[in-house]
Every structure is written in structure tokens, then in C-alpha cells.
Amino acid sequence: MLRKYDTPYMADWFAISLRWVALLGLIVSLGIGDKLQLSISWPLALLIIWNLVMTAFAGINIRMPYHRPISIFVELVLTGIFFWTQGGLRGPAVWTGLLPILTSSIYFELLGAIIISLLFSGLMIFTGMQVEGDFPIAVIISITLILLSLVFGFLGQRMILHLRKNRTLWQDSEEKKGAMQAERMRAIYELTTTLSSTLSYKRVLESALNMSVAALNPDPEQLHADPLAGAVMLFNGGKLRIGSARRFTTADMRVTFDAAEGVLKTTLDEGDPLFFKDIGYDPELGRVVGLRNCTSGYCFPLRSGFNVYGVLLFAHPNPEYFTMERRNLLDIIGRQAVIAIQNARLYQDLVEEKERMVEIHEEARKKLARDLHDGPTQSVAAMAMRLNIVKRMMAKDAKGAMEEIVKLEELAHRTTKEIRHMLFTLRPLILESQGLIAAVQSMSDKMMETYSQNVILNIEERVTTQLEMGKQGVIFYIIEEAVNNARKHAAAPVIAVNLRLVETGIALLEIVDNGLGFDLKAMSENYDKRANSSLGMVNLRERSELVNGLLQINSVLGKGTKVQVYIPLTEDAADRLHHPRSK
Fold this sequence. Notes:
Layout: E1 3-4, H1 10-32, H2 38-59, E2 62-63, H3 67-85, H4 98-107, H5 109-130, H6 135-197, H7 201-216, H8 220-223, E3 229-236, E4 239-246, E5 256-257, H9 262-270, E6 274-277, E7 296-304, E8 307-316, H10 324-396, H11 398-426, H12 429-434, H13 436-451, E9 454-459, H14 461-464, H15 469-490, E10 494-503, E11 506-513, H16 520-526, H17 536-546, E12 550-556, E13 560-568, H18 571-578
Parallel strand pairs: 9-10
Antiparallel strand pairs: 1-2, 3-4, 3-8, 4-5, 6-7, 7-8, 10-11, 11-13, 12-13
Helix pairs in contact: 1-2, 1-4, 2-3, 3-4, 4-5, 4-6, 5-6, 6-7, 6-10, 7-10, 10-11, 11-13, 13-15, 15-17
């Protein structure tokens, strides 16, 4: 039964080639002697057909069971018949025995060549014994065939040894390539596992770089000797800064890049990986000492959608180092690194948001403590003092004591209102039950009732219907913070609160007063130095960020203050608000 193999047998091709040479020699010798007749040359035609079949089998890597013995047996039989039909020892095909000897010297080396030569010699001697005077000729030719078989067998043995050695080297090379490929896949797997299992920003950068180097050099013996340089550069403060690097000097680690020209700009602008040469001539990368002996490089942009995090950069002294295979590998690693960096950033943002929320709640607690100290606590202390006075007046001046009790009652009512107002601002239940408009209206009423502060409202219902409850709560606290700041510091007769739609998907919240105003520039410069001051502006900014809004404050001394917050109602509106397109 025929069997198909993955790789060709070089010995078959050598045997086929030698057979074609021998057959060509036979055809030429017969043609010269005018013996090329079908009646006596039909075995030669069978030999040609047999070699064509063997050539076809070798071309498609197919072999028969006992392929080599069958092949030699067929040749021996056909050449013997051909030798006999051509006139034996006195015919033109006396040397036809070389054909099976050549094949056996390749297939079975020295021993095979000797055995076939002995068999064919036996045929010749038998033929020589049939004709008087041919026996000495048969012996001479037989001895010649045996000697030639020794030569061909020796050469065949050397050739087969050489082929086996080359095949072993090829198999070892393929095994090594397979091992290196497996090592690369393992490195990519480890990279994916490491990057997905950590949210530490620094560890993500180091892992992305180290695993990239390991994947490019899967042979551990070459890993430390390879002069491959690499770096992960991330944007921080509008500049590219080196987060992690390999073969960079200490001074190189402090270098920053504007990404305004050269390789970095092209990579970030086009958003595609870039293979480049002549790093020393690059206007920005040329400043890095660790890259000056490199002649080729590969730069992968770390970006996801509109978010650009930085680049993954590699360079090497060998101009042919970054083959297509290595570049494809770096592309895979780069995409995994982007996902990991994105996750690390999201986690970092979450941690920072959590810390900021803790600070906001801490500030709210301090604000409540200050308000209690400045308001109800002082009032309760005043009531206790007046009660002591009333107790003394009861025996001497009953009428005066009664008047003092009336004042005490008024103070108690006012203190109760202040406490209720504080409780309302801490958790306005009406906001949860009736929505933003009702909550702001209730706050306005309590401002008038408690502090005699006039607050005018103009809130469009079509805006509030597009706001989820979480955003409504944040907007309420922005209004409450701004109104309280105006009441306490601006001495404004009137405070106006407006919430309206200014364009598709974007609402504008305005808190305007006609009070004293302040110097915004001076206030901003000294804000962090005012230890005992309220953090009103900080609260406004942070709460505006919670709704993805844009805060603007305008104030003029003697002319009042205007607080504006642009609030996006959709993701598309948020992109337009924070990333305006130039016309």
C-alpha cells in the first residue's frame, strides 16, 4: 500500500537521476550501433517507464512498502533481460549491469553494490559458458563490475552519510526553531497572564518591556548578550517620559520628548507602527545615548480610540534585525500592552476617584462641623447663657424676664431652622422623591426662611428629564455650594440659578449674584495657602468633573460673581465639549 510522507527522500532523487544518466547512455550506445529496435529494446522501454513512475512517486513524496528492494529487483530483472536480448557478452549493452549497481550503491551502500554486482556477474558467467570462447571475457567483465561496485559502493556510502548528517542538522534546526517558536508563544502567554493579573502601573510597564525582549530572543543564551535597546514612553504633563527602559543610561531616563517631529511624531500622528533606520539622525531620539549605536528601530503607538498613552520603542545595531516575523510579534505584544495600560490607568483613576471622594466626604464633615460651630452651637450657648440670666431676673424683674424668654423662643426657632437646613443639605430626600427642580425650590424656600436670602430659579424641565438621578444629585450640591458661598461671602441681595439647554446635548448651569465679587486671579494664586478658608472652589471644580462638566468662574470686584458649568448630556456631547474640532 502506498504511503505519503511530509518530506522527500533525497536518496530516491539521487537514484532516479543516476538511472536517467545510465538510460541515456544506453540509448546513445544503441543508437550508434544501429541496435535501437523495438523487437530487442523493449526492456529498455520498460526501464524508462519504470523510472518515470519512480520519478512521479518521488515528486509527490509517495513510497511503496519495501520500496528499495522492489526497485532494485525490478531493475535487476529488466537489465538482465535487456542484456540477454542485446546479444549478451558480444552485444552493445554489456555494461548495462551498472544500472542496478548504481541504484544499490545508493540504497544499500557498499554491501548492496557488491551483492548486485555478484548476481549480475553470475548471469554473465552463465552466458559466457553457453558460447565457446566467451568464458574468459565473462570473467574479465565480472571482475571489472565487482571492482566498479566497490568504487560506487564506497562513494554511495560517503554520500548517504553526508545526506544523513545534513538531515540530522536540518531536523535539529527545525527542532530548535520549533523550540524557539514555543518559547515565543510561552513568552506571549506569560505577557498576557502577567499584564492581565496586575494593575500596578509600574509593573505593567516593566512586564511589557521585559516580555517583549524575551519574545524577540527566545534563546536564553542570547537574551543577555543581545544589544537590543527598548523603552516604554508615556505621556505625562503633555510630554513623553520614559517609564521603563532597557540599555538606557541614567541620563537617558530623565530625557523628555515633545513628539513634535521625527519618528515619534509620525508614529503618533498616523497611529500605525513604524519601522525606521538612521536613528542617530532623528531630531528627538538622537539625543538618547543608548540608541546611538543602533541602526534600525521599531516604534509601536500605544493608543486606544482617541486615547493616546505613548509608544513602545525598540532599536538594534543590526539593520536587518526587525524582520516581518519580529514586527508581527511586537504588534501582538503592543496591543496587549495597550489593554493592560488602559486597565492600569482605569484602576489608577478609580483609586484616585476613591481618594477624592473620601476627601470630599471629609471636607463635608469638616464643613458640617464648622457650620455647627458657627451656627447652632453658638446659638445653643447663647440660649444657655440667657436662661441663666432669666433665672436671676425671675425674682427681681418678672416683666424683663418674660421679654427675655420671648427672645429665647425666637432664637430656639431660628436654631431649629438652621439645623433642619443643614440636615436638608446633607441628604435632600425631596431630591430622591420629586427630582432636581423640587429639591432646588425647597432649598430656595429654606434660604429665604432661614437666612432671608432671595434665590431666583429658572430651571428647564427638558434638561432635568435627560439627567439620571446621580447627576441630578451632583448638580444639586453644585448649586447648594455656590449659593452658600454667595450668601456667606458676597452679601448678595439676589442670587439667580439658571439651568438651560444651550446646544444639542449640552446644558449650562449658572449661579449668578450681584454681590461684592472678588479678585479671581489673586484668590486662585493664594488659595492653597489659606489654611482656614473654605474649599468652595475646589468642591465646585471636583463636583463639575463628576458630571464630566466644564467649570468657568467670572468675578469682578463690586459687580458680583458668575459660576458657569457646562454639562454634557451624552457621550458625543462630552467629546465635543472637551475636544472641540477646529473649523
